[in-house]
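Table S2 (text version). Query chain:
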Amino acid sequence: EAVVSTQSTGLGDNHQCTNALRDYISAEHLAKKKSPLDIQNWKLKIEKDIPEQLNGCDCGVFTCKYAEYISQDKPFDFDQGDMPYFRRRMIWEMVNKTLL
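Corresponding structure-token output:
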């Protein structure tokens, strides 16, 4: 289990962000499950060598793809040029209620 944040190279480490994400997950668990979540041994990880978004409209697609690739322990082998395909694929998956 880990808390992973993604950021482009050159922006430095944003430990404040990963700490905030960890605290949010803990607070949400307590609010929803009415019991504390033991996350003491969770890794806090900052992914830096990531594909960069080159426009102002694909942030959601990039975020979904980062999450998908991290959860499947796959290397980030996509780029901005893949976004039209990913967008169509995501629409197909939602309409058909299945993941490819």
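Notes on Table S2: The longest strand covers residues 2-6. The chain has a mean pLDDT of 89.
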